[in-house]
Design goal:
8-stranded antiparallel β-sheet, alpha+beta, globular, 11 strands, 300 residues, 3-stranded antiparallel β-sheet, Jelly Rolls, 16% strand, 2 domains, disordered N terminus
Length: 300
């Protein structure tokens, strides 16, 4: 377990009382959730102290492999398309070639979905592939979320965010930010970051800033209108969430500042970035009801 602590006891806008926590544990025991309950309680305690927690070996290899297969199938044909466009795929020049092409006048002539792939984002049809539901359907993940959110009635924002970072990409993600800035449609949520490859310092992962969940910020969008301006975190010590093995899951609250690490390895970094909430919370956008396994469409 992580030994980092911070002055902030804030988690998800509320801290579960010990009495309520015991009720949840007794509920899980009564429906035979069993094995990982002791780990789950410890996760909750560390989560409340630090605003994040890495849970080791939470997801089985069959879950990780199925999710990764969805992304590899989507990416494979685009590599040939990029080669035709003059990108030196699979070399140290690949990222530079992509950046040069996307900043050229010819970029607007490239198919929109291919442009998305070139920037490390999967198109909507890939993110909505129901084979990815194997992740939220995991009983072990649901146990942890029930403990962290305080309710077994779980929901997942839809569509899920799926990312990949090409080898040698030193500009791997958005500036340091709090997820609450990008998800104002949710009254409360937990983010789960799930790598689909082994994470070490070379491959990179997520850097978090323990204690930063006490910050109140309302950042402005940057000039390109996609990302918010970075947060000043000079007073906080960064913590790189590596190593992480296949099956490990990083949980963090909506206020915890974090950023992506560079991918200096020779492999593609695939990951899922999921946001979960419960029936005690609200959303004005689509979500997956994890009781009925139906997509809820907001009115209007």
């Amino acid at each position: 377990m992580n030994t980092l602590t911070s002055g902030s006891e804030r988690t998800l806008g509320r801290t579960l009382s010990l009495h309520r926590r015991k009720i949840i544990v007794e509920l899980l025991q009564s429906i035979n959730y069993g094995v990982v309950l002791c780990e789950g309680v410890l996760v909750l305690e560390d989560f409340e102290k630090n605003g994040f927690e890495i849970v080791r070996n939470l997801l089985g290899p069959e879950i990780i492999n199925q999710a990764k297969t969805v992304f590899e199938e989507a990416l494979a044909p685009t590599l040939d398309q990029m080669t035709i466009l003059g990108i030196r795929v699979g070399t140290e020049n690949m990222v530079a070639d992509i950046n040069q092409l996307l900043s050229s006048p010819e970029a607007k002539e490239i198919d929109r979905d291919l442009r998305m792939i070139m920037t490390g984002q999967f198109p909507l049809n890939v993110r909505m592939d129901r084979r990815l539901w194997v992740v939220p359907q995991s009983p072990e993940l649901q146990k942890a979320l029930t403990l962290l959110l305080g309710s077994p009635n779980l929901r997942m924002h839809s569509p899920p965010m799926a990312r990949f970072v090409y080898p040698g990409n030193s500009n791997a993600g958005v500036p340091a930010h709090q997820d609450v800035a990008y998800n104002k449609h949710l009254s409360n949520f937990i983010t789960c970051w799930i790598p689909l490859v082994d994470i070490d310092f070379e491959c990179g992962g997520v850097t978090v800033y323990p204690g930063s969940d006490g910050l109140q910020r309302d950042p402005e969008l940057l000039g390109h209108g996609v990302w918010y301006e970075g947060i000043d975190l000079a007073d906080f010590e960064p913590f790189d969430c590596e190593p992480m093995a296949l099956g490990d899951v990083l949980f963090f609250n909506r206020h915890l500042a974090h950023k992506s690490m560079a991918n200096k390895s020779n492999k593609i970094r695939y990951s899922l970035d999921l946001r979960f909430f419960s029936d005690m919370d609200t959303s004005t956008k689509h979500y997956l009801d994890m009781r009925t396994w139906e997509i809820f469409e907001p009115n209007g």
